[in-house]
Amino acid sequence: MGLRKFSLRAFLKKNFDFITGILSEAGLTAVIMGVTLVICVLLALISQ
Amino acid sequence: MILPLTREDLKVIGYNMSKIVYLIGVLLFLPIIVAVIYGEFDVIPCFLVGIAIAFIFGSLLHHFLKTEKEMELKHALVMAALIWLVAPLLASVPIWLANATASYLDASFESISGFTGTGLTLATDIDHLSHSINFLRHFLQFLGDGIGIIVVSLSILGTTEMSSVLAFKGEAKDVGIRPSIVRTSRIIIGIAVTFLLIGTILFTAAGVYAGLDPGTAVFDGLNHSMTGYATGGFSVRSQNLLYYHNVWIEVAAIVIMIIGALNFNLHYAVLGGKRREILRNMEVRVLLLFLVVFGMFVSANLLQLNLYSSGEALFRKGVFHVISAQTTTGFQTVPSSILMFVWPVLSILLLSIAMLIGGCANSTSGGIKLLRVGVLFKSLVMDIKRALLPKSAVVKGSFHHIDDVPLTDTVVKGAAVIALSYLILFSFGTMITVAHGYSMEDSMFETSSALSNVGLSSGITSPAMPATLKVTYMFLMWAGKLEIIAIFVLIGFIILALRKGIRK
User: Fold this and answer.
1) Owning domain of residue A22
2) I want to staple B126 with a disulfide (CB 3.0 to 4.6 A). Which of B8, B182, B199, B238 is the partner?
């Protein structure tokens, strides 16, 4: 019917840079949240 | 020597504006689709009137000012300054006719706040606004600040390369992604739509987890994703994100706010395979530094006064507002009344500084921009080195921003001029707010919020505030969005026209 068989491997290979780029940016936001959360928890612990 | 203005100058500006005015008219059809979906047929005439006004105005400009002359930089800057006034005024018509605000001035304020991605609101009852008007408010932020109205017009209408480059500069955007400006515009739209989808999925999933019904979760998620990526900060709830009392919605907001505040060139490089750029880029490092330092000081200050005692509360209230301020988004998880009357002065001042500095250059965020602050700091370090080293020593500086960029006097001067202009406008806005009887710290907070297109409010911005203050903030939002230079050129144009007249 003209529909090509979907291949996850081919999709990932074709969009590798894009997907890893998105994950890198997600990683940056996770680092920022992680670092600031640790600081908040440490401050709260110190003050108790 | 400055040449006197000619009628041809006005024609070039007006004719190029007409295309964007048409586009505004076309884009106002989108909320009508939302109105049809939600059965809000009584609001549709409000949009149709707005569309009609846009088409009539566009036709007049197009017919009477038609010209073949190519745009120059002065035309582009004046056109950008004017279109960022005209477009919000046109889009404010449906907001006003639908009684979403108390007056046309308030509707214009709302629309300028939307287009510039500020997020200060004068809407009277956000919780009971129609879906279509609410969608329009959020869409304005995504269109104006998330992508840029000139970028949209270039990608759809297309125009000569020279005119496009200049128009881009007028909108305070970088042209350096790709050689073709139309291709650059489409890449910017592609990046924006990608993150809009990701944000919508995150917000919707968090909303469903928080107990919203799927329809509401999708609508709220789409709108918050549009304003989060645009670092705009409008919300479909009068209490902003505080309404949900949900940590995952706040996490989704933090993710999309930070991504929105990153440089388009950085997005393009990282999504194109240069993943290490995210660690090497000077702007990202400065962003990380400021978020950590401001987050630590605000949290410590809030803890000192026993406002919040747990690490989670400090993160969800203190750090969240630091990120919201630094990225110039304006999402709030604390009511304005608590910010104004309960939060300590030091925290308010730190948030004001974060707002003034803002996010990355060539991103959706406002403020002086991290790149310029980084450049000025590096220049300061170089000057200190020059003073300490022997006279014969040659001190050279550079910074990494996609490529290694030498720190020349021209780069430093450019950064210093914009920073100084921001500080002058900040002082001007603060003085006017203080003159209306508000405290110094609240005036500084609200002024930096308007000037840097943030939207966090200490409570000053309300339908009841004086009209003079509304107009002042409208000016600050407009000037801040265009990074001021285009406004100065427009003022220069007007002075030139008044002094020397307009020649044939």
Assistant:
1) 8-47
2) B238
